[in-house]
Write a structure and sequence with these properties.
Layout: E1 10-14, H1 20-30, H2 37-45, E2 49-55, E3 58-68, E4 71-79, H3 88-102, E5 107-112, H4 117-125, E6 129-141, E7 144-154
Parallel strand pairs: 4-5
Antiparallel strand pairs: 1-2, 2-3, 3-4, 5-7, 6-7
Length: 155
């Protein structure tokens, strides 16, 4: 007897305002200090390049980038915590960077919390290197702050 294992269908598409309720449901589960819906609306309104990831037509993740003068700035890359550990973050990152290359970017930058070991491992394994730190960049609790690691990758 053979068993047919269905490969999940992944789709990257432009993020739409109508995605914001689903996006916000993921954002608040994924982060202790989530972005607000207003921040995402501003990103869409001002022309940031925003992507939605669906898996089998289910909204599963998103990315927000800024691409200009040969640079891609990855501002937010998030996978629903319930879907993490399946390679979806890596898939979304690769897709977003490929689209940035197609838009003329030759280098990508991002910031990540030093404590976010999973994200750091992903970025390092995809060729990002630490190039600096922003002191006290992220909120991290009662009046506490955490540095941001600045990372870059030649595309």
């Amino acid at each position: 007897m053979s068993v047919h294992i269905r490969r999940k269908e992944r789709l990257i598409r432009p993020l739409q305002v109508s995605d914001l309720p689903l996006l916000m449901a993921i954002e608040v589960r994924a982060y202790t200090h989530p972005w607000t819906e207003g921040i995402f609306r501003d990103c869409l309104r001002t022309g940031y390049i925003c992507w939605a990831l669906t898996v089998d037509e289910i909204f599963t993740g998103y990315a927000v980038t800024s691409v200009a003068v040969g640079e891609c700035h990855l501002l937010n890359l998030t996978i629903d915590p319930a879907a993490q550990g399946q390679g979806l973050g890596r898939y979304l990152l690769r897709q977003v960077l490929q689209r940035a290359i197609e838009s003329g970017a030759d280098i990508a930058f991002l910031e990540v919390r030093p404590s976010n070991l999973t994200a750091r491992h992903l970025y390092e394994s995809e060729g990002f290197n630490e190039i600096g730190r922003r002191k006290n960049y992220y909120p991290s609790g009662k009046r506490q702050r955490e540095d941001a690691l600045l990372m870059a990758k030649k595309l």
